[in-house]
């Protein structure tokens, strides 16, 4: 059914539940209405009309029924060159954070959870999640917020003289139970109340963490005299080589050289080519000038970081502590719940034109089981990782020109389970059989990949684009809805509020009260609602700034 507006060539389609739509705002003030173009199976629109809570298990059953018909094609659709390119890219893209976060986790937990546990959890949980989740494009992994919360929990255990791993296990088991309750009652429907305001701030935070960690590692070489100036300079050169080659080749599909198939193939393999070239550069220069670069710190032995049994002794903490673990368990649940759902919201966005539907409640049930598994075995908790998930999505996407004429948009996505499974299967194989080969990769190469992952995730984030807009020459401002349909001052005010939220979250994450970090994530939704209730912005302004993207 169509509804015609006074503006020529503008139609409003009233979508049925289950149909994904893209909203377009008419620029003519006499007809400032929403135009929707339906593309196929919904990722988010189908949830708009659903209740927040449903009878036990109904949401999970609906997700299984929605995803089951696609299960066979989820494997067939991944067998092609684009799938191979995505697998190799994200193999390094997931291995590098696993090793890096493993090292940071070791420092944060007194060596009780380290690189071995992180890589093992990444490989095992990644394979299971790819095979059983509702949205297999999502990649699970450790994140900065989870690391901060684990560090706060370790410090709390030191304060109360409690053994960390048993307490960690009980906190994780409590959280697992709460997450399963959320899955059974379809609590993920509450995320429909969130908007782009939350999505943009959260994804910007995660991208900032990636970029900050890469820069911190590079700068540390200059601050430590034992490294030597030549090591610091070569590491910087290698990191920038990785970033430059990967970024340049990723844009190769828009160049006039060769034919379209060659351009697309080169662009698909851009990150992998960047890693190979940067590694070769480092080897040649290192051998020529006898410079020893820090290499990837891969554990040489497949064993826990400290001498212990793989299964944590749950009964080595007093009874009161087992019950008290429910309190930090709530904080872990809040963090994992929002981290998981915000990331899957970004993947399932109508902008991405996915056809196989969503599975939020099934995702949450799988996450609950994985959280219990990691807790009992003393492995780090994993959750949907924003930067890796967004890059996985982009590596599987076919791009085309944007209707606005500015940049590109996704035309289709090769939705499948095979790439996600293959990525993590290869990580597991590398941990078992290829540790010596991985240890030959300079750490600087993977720090360059960190930069690429962070920068790639930033692209398309309207919030960060609006930050840049604040420094634009007023006469050269691009013609976009938030610059032409509303006052530019309102756009800047909305952006400043997001900047304050981002800085507050980043500051709390690194502070002594880091365990309260999940509360700030949960407050993003109410803050956005408050902006509307307090009439800080008009509904028209919020529609332009915080409505569905084109």
TrEMBL record:
Cell location: Cell membrane
Ranges for domain Bicarbonate transporter-like transmembrane: 59-224, 229-548
GO cellular component: plasma membrane
Membrane topology summary: Multi-pass membrane protein
BP term (GO), one: monoatomic ion homeostasis
Stretches that traverse the bilayer: 84-105, 111-132, 139-161, 167-186, 193-212, 232-252, 273-291, 320-338, 359-383, 423-453
Pfam families for this protein: HCO3_cotransp
Family: Belongs to the anion exchanger (TC 2.A.31.3) family.
Name by which UniProt lists this protein: Bicarbonate transporter-like transmembrane domain-containing protein
Organism encoding this protein: Picocystis salinarum
